[in-house]
Amino acid sequence: MPVILSGGSGTRLWPLSRKAYPKQFLSLTGDKTLFQLTLSRLQALDTTDVEVLPPLLVGNEAHRFIMAEQAHSLGVEPSGILLEPVARNTAPAVAAAAIAASAQGLDPLLLILPADHVIQDVDAFSEAVRAGVASAQAGRLLTFGVVPNVPETGYGYIKLAGPAVAAQAQAVAAFVEKPDLATAQRYLDEGCYLWNSGMFLFRASVFLAELDRLEPAIAAAVRASMEAGKADHDFFRLGRSEFSASPADSIDYAVMEASDKVSVVPLQAGWSDVGAWDAVWQNASKDGHGNASYGDVVLRDCVNTHIHADHRLVVALGIDDAVIVETPDAVLVADKSRAQDVKAVVDQLKADRRAETDLHRKVYRPWGDYDSIAQGARYQVKCITVKPGHSLSVQMHHHRAEHWIVVSGTAKVSIGEKEILLTENQSTYIPLGVIHALENPGKIPLELIEVQSGAYLGEDDIVRFSDRYGREIDPGPPREAQ
Question: Is 475 helix (H, G, I), strand (E, B) or coil?
Answer without folding.
Answer: coil
